[in-house]
Write a structure and sequence with these properties.
The protein has a four-stranded antiparallel β-sheet, with helices on one face. It is built from two helices and six strands. It has about 120 residues and is of the alpha+beta class.
Length: about 120
C-alpha cells in the first residue's frame, strides 16, 4: 500500500492564513498600550542616600539633590569633584553631607527660601 500524496494548499487558503495573522498582529499591537495602562504602577520613592538630623535640622541627601527640612539646597559640583552651595559658595566640601552640615551651620535658625522664579536677569 502506498500513501496518498499530501494536497498542496490553495492560493486562497494561503491568503486567508496571511490575512488572519495580520489581523491578529494588528489587534495585539492596538490593545497592548491599553492592557499596559490597566496594570497598577508601582511608584517607589527612592530612599535617600544619607539622612540625618544635624543641630535639630533634618538633612536628606538624595539622588536629585540635598534637602534641609524638606527644602532644596542649591548645590554645584566643581571640576575637582568637590561641592559648593549658594549658602556658602566661598568654601568647597568633599561630600554632599559635609556641604549640608556646613549650610546648616551657616543658616542658623533661618530657613532656606523656596525659589519661585529665577532671580538672575
Amino acid at each position: 500500500m502506498s500513501a496518498a500524496p499530501a494536497a498542496l494548499p490553495t492560493r486562497r487558503a494561503l491568503l486567508r492564513t496571511a490575512f488572519t495573522a495580520a489581523v491578529l498582529a494588528g489587534t495585539a499591537a492596538a490593545l497592548a498600550p491599553v492592557l499596559r495602562a490597566r496594570r497598577p504602577r508601582q511608584t517607589l520613592t527612592p530612599a535617600p542616600l544619607a539622612e540625618e538630623t544635624y543641630r535639630g535640622r533634618h538633612i536628606a541627601v538624595e539622588q536629585a539633590g540635598i534637602r534641609i527640612d524638606g527644602r532644596p539646597l542649591h548645590v554645584m559640583r566643581r571640576a575637582d569633584g568637590s561641592y559648593l552651595s549658594g549658602v556658602n559658595h566661598f568654601e568647597s566640601f568633599g561630600t554632599p553631607l559635609e556641604l549640608a552640615r556646613a549650610a546648616v551651620d551657616e543658616l542658623g535658625t533661618a530657613q532656606l527660601v523656596l525659589a519661585s522664579a529665577p532671580h538672575h536677569g
